[in-house]
Structure to design on (690 residues):
C-alpha cells in the first residue's frame, strides 16, 4: 500500500520537530528514514502509526486519508527498538495477542501463531517468556507479532539499535529476505547509514525536521543533494574554496563544478572529496598538492591514511587498498602528493555548512 | 590480580574444591579474611589481597551486628513480649478475650473499614499512577506531591478534618443533622479518616514502577488494535500486578492498624465504633492487660499474615519462571 505524506508539520511545545515534510512511498518497498538523532525521523514514523498527530498536513495510505483513523484502526505493524514484548506473556501468547484482541477463532489463532513463528524461525520457542530469549530472538518475536494481522504497512523504529554488531548484521540480511518474500510496504527508522543502505530499496535522508534527499542508496551516495547528505553518508574531506562560472577553485587547484553548485560569480563554496576518492602518489602529478603522512591506520580490508596538507587542510583522510599502501611503503612522516579523483562542489559559506551539520556530526 | 583472584575467592567462599595448589587456596582464604593476621601471606604476598570494592571485614561485621541488634531490640523483643503477654494466661483466656461481643464487634468493624477503604484506594492508586505516568498535564508535580500529603501529616489531623467537616459544628454538620446522616462519631467517619490516611500506599508503589516500565508495551498494544480497557486489563495490570499487590497489602495493614485518625472520629462507642486498635487501648486503660494483649496479638498476626502472603507471592512468581524455563525445549 502506498504512503503519501503532504505538508506535515509537528512541534512539541516550542520545538519544531517536523517542518513541511512531503514524501511519497510506492507500495511494496522497504524505505529507510535515515538521519542523526533528533532529526524527526521517529516522530514521522509515529505519525504514520497514529501514535502522534501532525499539527498540519495530511497522510494517506493507498490514496485514502487516515487522519480520522486512530492507531487501533490503521492496522499497521509496529516494531520498537526495545521490542516492547509483553513480558507476562509467552512468545506464543505475544504473537497471538493482536489476533485474540480481534476475537478470531481459537483454531485459527493457533494455526496462525505456528505459521508466524515458522516465518521468523522460532518454532520451538512458543512457550518461553521474553526474558528467556536473546535480543535477536526477541526482535523476531516482535516482528512476528507485528505481522500477525497481515498489516498493509509495517513500521520499524530502530529495530536493530539494541542488538550487538554481529546479530545486527544477521538480522538485517534476514529482514531483507523476509521483505522480499512478503513485499509488505515497510518503513524503518535508523541513524546507521550502513544499515539503511544494506536493507532498504529507498533512503529518505532527514535533518532538523526536513527531508534532505530521497533516492536509492546508490543515488544518495553518488549524487548527494546537499552538503549535509555528503557529510552524513560517511567520512569526507572538506576544502574551502570558491566557485565561478562552473569552475571551483581551492588554492591553486581547479575543478569542474556540477550544476549542484548554484553559486555564480565567485561565490564561496566547499569542495568535498571522499577518502577513497583521494589518490595518494609519491611524486607530483597534474592537479595534485603536497601533504605529509601523519598516521597510517589499518582497518582490515582498507587502510586509512591521515594527512596534513597546509594550507588545504590539517586533518585529511585517504582510504587506500592495503596492497597500494604496501607498494608505496607509506609510513608516518612521509611526503606524498594528493590528487582528488572526484569532487563534489556545494556553494555556501562556512556558517551555512555548520548550521547544516548542527545535529552533531 | 583481580581477574585471576576473583574466581579463587569465590571458590574459597563456597567451599568448592580448588584447582590450584593448596597453599594458594590458603593464601586466598587469608586474603579473604583481610585485616586479620595472615601467616601465609608472607610466603605468597602477591595473592594476599581483597577485592577492590570490598569493605574491610570489621566494617562488614560491625554493620551486620548493628542491624541485628537494632532489629532485636526494637522489633523482636517487643513482638515476643506482646505474644508472650497474650498467651501467658492460657489459650482459654485468650479465646475469651477475643471472642467477647465487644471484641467481635471491633473485629467486624475493622474488617468492614478495610473492606471499603482498601478497594477505594486501590482504584484511586491505579487511576493516579496511570494518569501521572501516562499523560503529561499541568499540575502533574503538584498532584504527585499531594499524594504524599497523608504521609506528611499526623493521622490525628485526618481525624480532626473529618470532625471539622462533618461534626455538629462542622461545615456540613448542619446539613448532615437535617438529613439524618451520621458521619462523625460513626462508621462513615471512620472510613473517611482511614481512606485519607491510607491513600498514598498503592499509588506510591505503582508510580515508580510504571515510570520505569515506560509506555512502549501499551503503545504496541494500541497499534495492535487493543482498546483502552483491554490495554489496562491485559497489559498494564498484569505487568504491575506484584507492585499493585504489595501496595494493597501495605494499604490493608495500615487500614486495619490505624489508630490516631480513627481515635479522633470514632467517639469510642463500645460495640459500635471501636476498631481493634481502639479496643486494645480501652482494655489497656481499664487495666485489663491480659485481654488487651490478647486482642493486640490479632493485629500482630495480621502483620505476620501480611509478611507470609507477600513472601508466598514472591516464591510463586519465582516458581512460575522456573517452571517456564523448564517446560521449554
Amino acid at each position: 500500500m502506498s504512503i503519501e505524506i503532504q505538508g506535515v508539520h509537528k512541534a512539541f511545545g516550542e520545538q519544531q520537530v517536523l517542518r513541511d515534510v512531503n514524501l511519497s512511498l510506492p507500495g511494496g518497498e522497504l524505505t529507510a528514514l535515515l538521519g542523526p538523532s533528533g532529526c524527526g525521523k521517529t516522530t514521522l514514523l509515529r505519525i504514520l502509526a497514529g501514535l502522534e498527530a501532525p499539527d498540519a498536513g495530511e497522510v494517506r495510505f493507498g490514496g485514502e486519508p487516515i487522519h480520522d483513523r486512530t492507531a487501533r484502526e490503521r492496522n499497521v505493524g509496529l516494531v520498537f527498538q526495545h521490542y516492547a514484548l509483553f513480558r507476562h506473556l509467552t512468545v506464543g501468547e505475544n504473537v497471538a495477542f493482536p489476533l485474540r484482541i480481534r476475537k478470531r477463532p481459537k483454531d485459527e489463532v493457533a494455526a496462525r501463531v505456528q505459521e508466524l513463528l515458522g516465518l521468523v524461525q522460532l518454532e520451538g520457542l512458543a512457550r518461553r517468556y521474553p526474558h528467556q530469549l536473546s535480543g535477536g530472538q526477541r526482535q523476531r518475536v516482535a516482528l512476528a507479532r507485528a505481522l500477525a494481522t497481515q498489516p498493509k504497512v509495517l513500521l520499524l523504529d530502530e529495530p536493530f539499535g539494541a542488538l550487538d554488531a554481529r546479530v545486527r548484521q544477521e538480522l538485517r540480511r534476514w529482514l531483507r529476505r523476509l521483505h522480499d518474500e512478503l513485499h509488505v510496504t515497510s518503513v524503518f527508522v535508523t541513524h546507521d547509514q550502513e544499515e539503511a543502505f544494506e536493507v532498504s530499496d529507498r533512503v529518505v535522508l532527514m535533518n532538523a525536521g526536513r527531508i534532505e534527499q530521497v533516492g536509492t542508496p546508490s543515488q544518495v551516495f553518488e549524487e548527494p543533494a546537499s552538503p549535509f547528505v555528503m557529510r552524513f553518508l560517511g567520512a569526507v574531506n572538506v576544502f574551502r574554496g570558491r566557485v565561478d562560472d562552473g569552475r571551483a577553485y581551492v588554492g591553486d587547484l581547479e575543478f569542474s563544478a556540477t550544476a549542484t553548485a548554484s553559486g555564480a560569480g565567485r561565490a564561496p563554496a566547499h569542495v568535498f572529496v571522499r577518502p577513497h576518492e583521494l589518490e595518494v602518489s609519491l611524486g607530483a602529478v597534474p592537479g595534485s598538492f603536497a601533504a605529509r603522512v601523519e598516521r597510517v591506520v589499518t582497518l582490515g580490508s582498507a587502510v586509512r591514511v591521515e594527512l596534513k596538507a597546509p594550507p588545504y587542510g590539517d586533518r585529511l583522510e585517504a582510504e587506500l587498498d592495503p596492497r597500494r599502501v604496501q607498494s608505496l611503503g607509506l609510513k608516518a612522516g612521509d611526503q606524498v602528493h594528493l590528487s582528488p579523483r572526484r569532487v563534489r562542489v556545494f556553494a555556501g559559506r562556512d556558517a551555512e555548512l555548520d548550521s547544516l551539520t548542527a545535529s552533531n556530526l | 590480580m583481580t581477574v585471576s583472584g576473583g574466581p579463587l575467592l569465590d571458590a574459597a567462599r563456597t567451599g568448592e574444591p580448588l584447582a590450584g595448589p593448596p597453599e594458594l587456596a590458603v593464601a586466598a582464604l587469608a586474603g579473604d579474611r583481610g585485616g586479620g593476621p595472615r601467616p601465609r601471606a608472607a610466603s605468597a604476598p602477591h595473592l594476599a589481597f581483597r577485592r577492590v570494592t570490598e569493605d574491610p571485614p570489621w566494617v562488614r561485621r560491625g554493620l551486620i551486628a548493628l542491624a541485628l541488634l537494632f532489629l532485636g531490640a526494637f522489633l523482636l523483643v517487643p513482638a515476643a513480649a506482646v505474644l508472650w503477654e497474650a498467651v501467658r494466661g492460657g489459650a482459654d483466656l485468650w479465646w475469651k478475650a477475643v471472642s467477647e461481643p465487644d471484641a467481635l464487634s471491633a473485629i467486624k468493624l475493622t474488617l468492614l473499614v478495610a473492606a471499603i477503604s482498601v478497594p477505594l484506594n486501590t482504584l484511586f492508586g491505579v487511576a493516579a499512577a496511570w494518569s501521572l505516568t501516562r499523560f503529561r498535564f499541568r499540575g502533574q508535580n503538584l498532584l504527585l506531591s499531594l499524594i504524599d500529603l497523608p504521609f506528611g501529616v499526623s493521622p490525628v489531623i485526618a481525624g480532626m478534618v473529618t470532625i471539622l467537616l462533618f461534626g455538629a459544628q462542622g461545615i456540613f454538620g448542619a446539613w448532615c443533622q437535617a438529613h439524618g446522616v451520621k458521619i462523625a462519631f460513626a462508621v462513615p467517619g471512620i472510613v473517611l479518616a482511614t481512606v485519607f490516611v491510607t491513600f498514598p500506599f498503592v499509588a506510591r508503589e505503582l508510580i515508580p514502577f510504571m515510570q520505569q516500565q515506560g509506555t512502549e508495551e501499551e503503545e504496541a498494544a494500541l497499534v495492535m488494535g487493543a482498546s483502552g480497557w483491554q490495554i489496562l486489563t491485559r497489559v498494564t495490570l498484569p505487568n504491575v500486578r506484584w507492585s499493585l499487590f504489595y501496595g494493597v497489602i501495605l494499604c490493608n495493614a495500615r487500614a486495619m492498624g490505624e489508630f490516631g485518625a480513627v481515635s479522633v472520629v470514632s467517639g469510642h462507642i463500645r460495640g459500635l465504633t471501636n476498631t481493634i486498635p481502639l479496643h486494645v487501648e480501652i482494655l489497656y486503660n481499664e487495666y485489663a492487660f491480659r485481654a488487651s494483649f490478647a486482642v493486640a496479638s490479632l493485629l500482630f498476626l495480621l502483620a505476620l499474615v501480611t509478611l507470609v502472603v507477600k513472601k508466598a507471592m514472591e516464591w510463586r512468581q519465582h516458581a512460575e519462571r522456573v517452571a517456564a524455563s523448564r517446560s521449554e525445549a
Remarks:
- The first strand of chain A starts at residue 3 and ends at 12.
